Description:
The chain is of the alpha/beta class. The protein has 6 helices and 12 strands.
Amino acid sequence: MSILKVALVQQKTIPNDIHSNIQLGLKYIREAHKKGADIVLFPEMWSNGYAEPFDGAFDNPFDADFEKERAKWLDDAIDRDSEYIKAFLAIAKELHIGVVCTYLSKTADKPQNTAIVIDRNGDIILEYAKVHTCDFSLEGLLQSGSEFKICEFDGIKLGVMICYDREFPESARILMLKGAEIILTPNACDINPARLNQFSTRAFENMTGVAMSNYPNTGWGASCAFSPIVFDQNGAYVDNAIVIADDTSEEIIIAEFNIDSIRAYRKSETWGNAYRKVNTYGDLLSDEVKEPFIRK
């Protein structure tokens, strides 16, 4: 039986303090390793804790009174040669453990909200920039990613989507079509039953396992994992929740995915890409936005 153990890091950072967050990140990877994790999943933008550069930045990121603070926040973006990335690569190799490392990344244009998957040898096997940036908020300052990607870790095909990506069915659907068996999701926002149900549905409709790490806070947290298996071999419904944390606990939770069972289920059930009628889906590729969805 093949089991993938994903460590969900539901821990706090030091806001906008990358050096402290390196040390915290390394500490939690070591703790996850002791718990037997195969791969460690951090919340979104761990490098700065997804902390705003000034009060009110989430609602008004372009406030002209805070140009200096905004510029510094953007200037704190890092690249692959940074101390931050090197530290995570080194510990992955040292402990022979996978890591999904998240950060504000530097590009030739605007910074991006990025996640990398590091394998057990300390090599980057996937780099993903968030496609569905929250353009109505602080991420209006950032550049959106342009592609959903998968990689292979321990013979398992992994995909990554970040926070708001999970609220668009296309994100997980494309990852499934590219072959993802498990989708890992760094997160940073409030979580409620609607969003948990939505995330569980991504597993159900695509027949992929999903896992999410989120920051602890009142109304936040709820780091979780769901199996795609919603029926047993006799057709009886089974609860597909693997683990769901509370909102405020600071902890590292191990979510175990039974890969053999998931693969058997994917071969036999009707969702995913088994019976799609793709010739009717042309409207999905239209970029026209009509009322009531037009936003300034």
